[in-house]
Write a structure and sequence with these properties.
Layout lengths: L2 H4 L3 H19 L2 H25 L2 H19 L10 H23 L2 H23 L1 H4 L1
Length: 140
């Protein structure tokens, strides 16, 4: 077997490069930036799920939706202050639960409506988050 036949293909190399770039962003990010990355990542995964849905790729759709759900559940929800003691955190927790239900329903039914709703809500939250980060005094 020659070296050329053992080299990773170009797609693998590009993916690896992107993974390293993302890892670098995450490791060097402020807590505020990490939340932005979670919103972006969840929205990208939802976009990929829509593409898989259009292509009839059930496995890809399920994988992308699962990824989005993990980012919302294990990332955004876990980053909240104690929902029992903080009204804003409690409201966000409920909204994240609703987003998760939309994603589950979209996956089960193979329907784009739940994906669109989850993406719209995440986009609104991402915009609000970015505004609060950019203008902290105005957000208080």
């Amino acid at each position: 077997m020659s070296y050329a036949s053992r080299r990773p293909d170009a797609t693998y190399s590009v993916r690896s490069y992107k993974d390293v770039g993302l890892e670098t962003q995450v490791l060097s990010a402020s807590p505020e930036r990490l939340i932005s990355l979670l919103y972006s990542g969840a929205r990208v995964a939802i976009g990929q799920a829509k593409q898989h849905l259009e292509q009839g790729n059930v496995t890809g759709r399920a994988s992308s939706i699962s990824h989005a759900m993990r980012l919302v559940d294990e990332g955004l929800k876990q980053a909240l202050a104690n929902p029992q003691e903080d009204k804003l955190a409690a409201n966000l927790d409920s909204l994240y639960d609703y987003i998760l239900r939309q994603l589950v329903t979209a996956n089960i039914k193979g329907d784009v409506a739940g994906l669109d709703e989850a993406d719209r809500l995440l986009a609104d939250l991402q915009d609000a988050w970015q505004t609060a980060v950019d203008q902290p005094a105005a957000a208080v």
